[in-house]
Amino acid sequence: MADGDTAILEVDAATLRFGGVSALRDVSVAVRPGEIFSIIGPNGAGKTSLLNCVSGRYRPQQGAIQFRGEDVTRAKPNARCARGIGRTFQNLALYNRMSVLDNILVGRHNQLRNNFITGSLYWLTGADREEIEHRRAAETIIDFLEITHIRKAKTGTLSYGLRKRVELARAMAIEPSLLLLDEPMAGMNHEEKEDMARFIIDLNEEWGVTIVMIEHDMAAVMDISHRVAVLDFGEQIAEGTPDEVMADPRVKQAYLGEEGEADSALEAAS
Predict the structure, then answer these.
(1) Residue 160 domain-assigned?
(2) What is the pTM of this model?
(3) Which of 152, 232, 234, 243 is the most buried (most CB within 10 A)?
(4) Assign residue 72 a region: left if phi > 0, alpha if psi is -120 to 50, beta otherwise?
């Protein structure tokens, strides 16, 4: 990292083991404020394990994780959420029988000031004003992601692409400064991927949210990322700008295949 740059997220020599299997071995990354930082690699490379360590779902046996200069290695997931770390999941984790609006409001839980007791005194404790505030914030997100037409629809009735958008909306609802996206474009058609890429760029540039993203679509990664890290069998083998990473022979071998296949993939991603 260049002199004067301060990382919003630092993973220092993280090692994560499950029995005799090492999911991560001595992985270190530093994510700068305001950037889109992508993590790529073959299936089983340890990408989601790394995100799980950052979000608090897993705790590495070795190494440390710092967020905004604070050691959060042992912090629980809800504590990290309260500090401003949001995430989406590779497998959708929505409430399918609830409306889109209600799913987004669930994401506002870390912003709630009233509790069960004070909330029952709806008009006396300001709970009514708080509800209006949260609904206004949810509607802003709905407008941003262009899902006004489905705001009252049951989430389980929506297409996969729209549910992925609702998942992003719920993650945005906690007002994160760091957003972890686990394969946000997986399973989408070309048009849906273009929309999601546009939302990610706007979220980064207009909302000022730092993005850490896992994605298999190499063209999308190379198009929107500021920097890229590459994992292979739990080890970090490269990090740099998209062009630097794509030119790295270790990446061509481990991720893109042999030279001929790599050249084809490079051409498709350019």
Answers:
(1) yes
(2) 0.86
(3) 234
(4) alpha
